[in-house]
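Minimal example, chain plus flavin-adenine dinucleotide.
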Amino acid sequence: MEEQHRGPVFTYCIMSPSLIDVLAFTLAAGPSALASAGLVNYGNSACKQLASSYSEQTILPNTTTYTIESSENWSLTCLASPLCVFEPKSAEDVAGALRVLENTNTKFAVRSGGHMPVPGAADIADGVLITLNKLDTTELVGSTARIGAGLKWWEVYDWLYTEGLATAGGRFGPVGVGGLLVGTGINYFGSQTGWSVNSVLNYEVVVAGGNIINANATSHPDLWLALKGGSGNFGIVTKYDMATFPLSNVWGGTLEYNMTELDAYVHAIAGYVDPQGGSADKLAAADCLVLMTPQTGEFELVNVLFYQDPIESPAAFSNFTKIPAGVSTTSIRTWTDFVVEQNSSMYSDSQQRRAFYTTTLKATPDSVYLVNSTFIDAAFSELTDIPGILTSVTYQTITRDWLFAAKASGGDSMNLDPENGAIIVILISTNWQDAIYDQRIADFSNGIISLINQKAEAVNLSYPFYNINDAGPGQDIFRSYSGSSFSKLKETRLKYDPNGTFQKLVPGGFKLGL
Ligand SMILES: Cc1cc2nc3c(=O)[nH]c(=O)nc-3n(C[C@H](O)[C@H](O)[C@H](O)COP(=O)(O)OP(=O)(O)OC[C@H]3O[C@@H](n4cnc5c(N)ncnc54)[C@H](O)[C@@H]3O)c2cc1C
């Protein structure tokens, strides 16, 4: 990824009396009055054109809305001060803005839920930030959910719940629909439905030049396939049509164990991921975390369990439920109640610098032991001097059934072969507070990923796949896709974006390259 130098989010200065007058005028009169008085900072000519054609949708600097909009990203590493913010209300607005940006050769970034902790992916300092918040419509067409790209998952689930339905979207309510559905999508229903993107029946997408295209199994199927895993390389998706299914009550919740149960917990995870273990039950999903505070040597052992049928203590989780838990919230409950609980403080605190990095191993018990010991050793040897740091490893099982379901739905760009067996997608997630440690965390994370890969390779447990939704800056995502996917993605990119708008003008995020 291109390196960016982002300006400070807030600039403190001593204000001159004339500046105070201008600010007072801004508050009293608003930006359009300022524009006619010739006092507006338009950022650049693109912002000026956007403000003139779309005054309501264009948010200029020195306004309260601008300050709010430029600080909506989940990780503090992803805050920047854009030249202006554009907040489209329709696909036509997106198309018009895209033409302005292309004609003025202006850089831009696209943000839906702002939850990708990759600096520059959904923030920009020297360009225009397009935020999709206002693309928030919901419509049920038969059993298909048509959802705006600016929605958060909890909004989608709450709405569908009133219809007695659900869809295989993200597991955490505040995450955006937009980014997750151009990535992969680890969800609670995957052994039946595949990745979340495998439930996308149609993408309404604005491609380079401002054309609005519907990409699905019969219309632009190459683009439909490319968007399932290809991220923001092809255009700006404005609506997603998703398959739904009836759902009301489920069993699930969180178990938290005392740190003395670490060995028992790791054995239970190892047993669960085994293809003959609990993960073989298609209705089960487990999100198994080992969290560490390296400075104090404390562990938090957090296990989120989900079962699609409302039955008490499903057998699939018996290895987990037999370990005495300090905290257990598991019960039969509504699906939406279960989702709300997952927005725990670990993920909802927005005042943290954060990083995700990922790798994948074959789903065997030995993979769990290998990752766990490597992670704990590295964290203890490298991170103990960093104040306030919390780091974790998460084990996410992707079963063979999941990969078969992905194929059966029409496939995706990841193109993982179910015949190669089940996998564990590993997420290394770290929170810290001070920017002086950013490079240390990146080095630690890259180091641990390559160490895990080397060790896994040596014992034939490696699996060459990086899950884009859990990835860190610089991870080589698209080359990790299977078979000819990478070259197909590049061909499709060339077809729909021959001038490379989304490569050249969108510097952030995971790029296919020209
Ligand atoms: C707390 C937390 C929980 C998570 N849980 C899950 C989970 O359960 N399952 C899972 O698979 N992943 C999960 N993720 C990862 C998450 O799905 C990805 O980070 C995803 O990209 C976030 O989507 P967003 O819209 O919030 O992100 P953003 O940061 O807004 O966008 C991410 C990238 O996608 C691009 N993009 C966004 N919207 C569009 C669009 N409409 N058209 C084209 N490009 C677009 C952006 O430009 C950016 O490059 C989680 C992340 C966090 C932080």
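The first strand starts at residue 58 and ends at 59. The domain at 41-131 is CATH 3.30.465.10 (Uridine Diphospho-n-acetylenolpyruvylglucosamine Reductase; domain 3).
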